[in-house]
Amino acid sequence: MATTGDTAAPAAGRREPSHGWRLFAIWLVIALAADLVIWFVWKPHLPPGTLSTSAADQQFDLAVLSVIAAPVMIFVLVYFSYAVIVWRHREGDDEDGPAQFGHTGIQATWIIGTAVIVLSLFVFGTYELISPAGAGAGEGPAPIWTPGGKTLQVQVIAQQWRFTYRYPQFGGFETTQLVLPEGQWVQFNVTSIDVIHSFWAYQLGVKADANPGVNNVAFTKPTHAGSITVRCAELCGLWHGSMYDFGHIMTKQGFEQWATSTEQKLAPATKLLPKFAYTYVPDANGADGGYYPDNVDPYSNVETYGASTTQS
Amino acid sequence: MSLPVRVGTLVVAFLAVVGVAIFVVIHYFLGGPPVVDYSAGVPANAGRTVSVVMQEDPQNSVSTHPDWVSYFIQSPTSHQWVHTTLFQVPAGSRINVTILGYDGCTPLRNPFWGKVTGTVGNVVHVNGRPVSVLNSWANCAVGHTFSIPGINLNVPVASPSSVQANENLCPTSPCTSGPHTVVTFSFFTPRQAGDYFWQCRIPCGLGYLDGFGGPMQTIGFMTGQMEVVS
């Protein structure tokens, strides 16, 4: 460690300034200014925005982490700069520096300070996972952090190379459009019917892996109307880069109208769909709700799949 | 070793390395399937109509993967079948598509894709009969699909009846005879130029993970691009 005001040898003919207080004063001014800029100027523009509770919480978390990290980084840079400027080698000064000894106060302050910061972040991070019901992340099939009250169920079915969405509370219709109401908790049930994908609704702050045979649950509550970009965030094959679509958040009344009209419009196609299930096993022996019925080989070269053998 | 021999050896080695590099570049980076041009002589955004003709075959005897299912596209000038899935169409035009379905049926993993979307009237004509939804699990109805997600186009391509197809599949590609369906539909291209990938949604890559490898992931077989030019 470089010398401090307490241990520096006094220069001939002048009193050594208190470097510690100087450093503290410089650091305090810069750190305070940086934190104010982060909180009031940068925070409103931090991703992923404020379109949902989970997105707003993530923005808040990023701002808090930045406000805590900035003073630490600034302290390192200020100390480094101060040392380079003040304690640089001067012309004609060939003397050795003063001997260095341990400083209990500095060591204790460092250990306690870093411990307090890290433990505070641990508690803060854990609370932030709990309070917005998982913070928009996939929690697996049995989430431990759930919102209270009724949720809108939306099943996300990933397949090469498109997401489709089922709404079990509206007759189980399936569509390529993701439409959500504002002000209501949404439960995404994310699964895949082929390879591994990842459902990333950027503006909602929702990201959940889509694995075949697994129901990965994520929660969020849209707060106001807007557009959502949905991307696959897991390399999934040739056209992975084209696996994206756009969703919309609308008023509750608008959503109800959209859902009921879409349910009616898609009724002929809905009849073809398997019974709603949280997972669809993509093989010939698909279990209950599978996209292939039991004991059917979809690749059979003799299976007629319901066709009459007398058909010409 | 004499100087001329040493120089000659060096030149030969240099040329061999350059040759290998050129082969790799041409074969692996520039050696894609050809693009069938339906836009030649057709002005973009002029409301013109272009006819695109394709066929999907149960095998592919013209490639190094004879057991892979494949699309073919007909050249508008020579009317020869070209082994490719890349085609070019003018922007702002009506595209009349005819697909000859020579392959037998395989059920859709997600029956949702049995619904026709993005075509004029949201219908296809199967052997002249308008259809808006095809149930791939009933009467062995669907062989493949032709889907362009970028313009929300999804067309299940009907297959000939399973009995016909299973007993008399067209044996060589491109198919010119054998049981098949004639599927026709129309759609409009965007007014802006761009590349739109298209794919089949039937898991017809036999022997690959979930049926979605091999021909399903290879341009020139069951997926490709529609290049819209303006």
Mind sketching the topology for me?
The complex is a heterodimer of chains A (312) and B (230).
Chain A: H1 19-42, H2 53-86, H3 104-130, E1 152-159, E2 162-167, E3 173-175, E4 178-181, E5 186-192, E6 197-201, E7 206-210, E8 216-220, E9 226-232, E10 244-250, H4 252-265, H5 267-270
Helix pairs in contact in A: 1-2, 2-3
Chain B: H1 3-29, E1 35-37, E2 49-57, E3 70-74, E4 81-82, E5 86-90, E6 94-101, E7 124-126, E8 129-131, E9 142-148, E10 153-158, H2 162-167, E11 181-188, E12 194-199, E13 223-229
Parallel strand pairs in B: 1-5, 2-6, 5-13
Antiparallel strand pairs in B: 2-3, 3-4, 6-11, 7-8, 7-11, 9-10, 12-13
Structure report:
- Chain A is 33% helix and 18% strand.
- Among the domains of chain A are: 19-86 and 110-130; 152-270, Cupredoxins -  blue copper proteins (Immunoglobulin-like), CATH 2.60.40.
- In chain A, the strands form two sheets. Chain A has a five-stranded mixed β-sheet with strand order 3-2-1-5-8. In chain A, strands 4-10-9-6-7 form a five-stranded mixed β-sheet, covered by helices on one side.
- Chain A is α+β, with helices and mostly antiparallel strands and 312 residues long.
- Chain A is built from five helices and ten strands.
- Chain B has 230 residues and is α+β, with helices and mostly antiparallel strands.
- Chain B folds into two domains: 1-31; 35-229, Immunoglobulin-like.
- Chain B contains two helices and 13 strands, in the order H-E-E-E-E-E-E-E-E-E-E-H-E-E-E.
- Chain B has helices spanning 3-29, 162-167; strands at residues 35-37, 49-57, 70-74, 81-82, 86-90, 94-101, 124-126, 129-131, 142-148, 153-158, 181-188, 194-199, 223-229.
- In chain B, strand 9 (142-148) and strand 10 (153-158) form a beta hairpin.
- Chain B is globular.
- The model of chain B has no long low-confidence stretch (mean pLDDT 89).
- Chain A binds chain B through residues 157, 159-162, 164, 174, 176, 193-195, 212, 237-239, 242, 266, 268-269, 272-274, 282-283, 291-293, 296, 298-299, 301-309, 311-312, and chain B through 104-107, 109-112, 114-115, 132-133, 135-140, 149-150, 152, 161-164, 166, 197, 199, 201, 203, 206, 209-212, 216-219, 223.
